Every structure is written in C-alpha cells, then in structure tokens.
Amino acid sequence: MMPEAIITWILYLNENGIKTEGIFRRSPASSKLREAKEEFDCEIGSMDCEELGGVHVIAVLLKMFFKELQIAIFDKNVYEVLKGQQKAKIAGVDILVWPASQYSPA
C-alpha cells in the first residue's frame, strides 16, 4: 500500500509540475526540504503541497521516498531495459518508449 501523501504528491506534480523545467533536477532550499520531510516522516502538518514548498520540494520528496525504499520497484533487468529506451515527446514532455516485446514482467 502506498502512503496517501505519495498519491497526493504524484497528483499535484501531474497537475502543477508537468511542464516545470528541471522538476527533478533543481533542489529547493535545504531548510524547506528538511521541514517538509520531517512533516512527512512524522505524519504531521497539513501536507498541503504549496505550503510544503511547491513543485520542486514535492518532486525531491517523491524522489527521496522511492530512493529510501528497502526493496527496489524495478529489478536490474527492468533497469537495463529502461536505460536503453528511446525517448519520445508527448505534449512537450519526454517519455520512454517501451516496446512490449522487450520485457514481460514475471
């Protein structure tokens, strides 16, 4: 089961950050990020994405969440396939082209 905050963050980024340049590369102020992470870790605060610091804070929190998982979401086989995929643009957003013939989940 995924924490409710993660779903909220994904929906927020989809609605507010999809065209934000450098969304997963730019780092917000470390104090703002630390404060937001503490609220998430302790399950306190409003979890209002704008109050937490907006698109860049939420993007980094989402990256941190997935990075800190004890079990990887994608195994090494999937990772290798993803690394080698071609990119395409849809509505100005880079996406990976994933031919079904290259990988079938077990």
TrEMBL record:
It comes from Zancudomyces culisetae (Gut fungus). Residues 1-106 form the Rho-GAP domain. GO terms for biological process: small GTPase-mediated signal transduction. This is Rho GTPase-activating protein gacY. GO terms for cellular component: cytoplasm. GO terms for molecular function: GTPase activator activity. It comes from the Eukaryota.
